[in-house]
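Students often ask why we bother encoding 3D structure as a string. The short answer is that it lets us treat folding as translation between two languages. Here is a chain of 149 residues written in the first language.
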Amino acid sequence: MQPNSRTRINQPLQRSATLEYILLGDLRDLLEEPANEETCRWLSAVLDALLDTLPREFDLEEQGGYLSVVLEEFPNWSPQVEQLQEEHYILFAKLKNLRKRVSQRSSFAAIADELRVDLHEWMRMLIAHHRHENRLLQTAINLEVGAGD
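And here it is in the second language, the structure alphabet:
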């Protein structure tokens, strides 16, 4: 049996999501480390990897139409889908800005506390984004239009 196009898209998307999950775990661990130059180097490497991974993940999600399964069943949900798609750009831009702040430091230790807070906030935004995507997909799949008691 030949895999369909959705399966071919989902395999790379799953790998990308797995890599993202691992990188976020690494990022959490690094944010608990002492603010020194070694931590800064590792933090830079993880942020660079996320900057490579996120656009690929977002592109894979958008192949064939972002959340097209949802929009096929519920076209009136397009404002929610558009908002989620816009968040792709916002999340990437914020991550890029955070990475720039790490590289433009005069002393990592001087900005470490502020950066920790901002990186934790970015991670919360990303997790909330994924939850909203999943909730929208699950609702669309499980909702029975016109079903009653």
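Translate back mentally: The two ends are 40 Å apart (CA to CA). Keep this in mind for the problem set.
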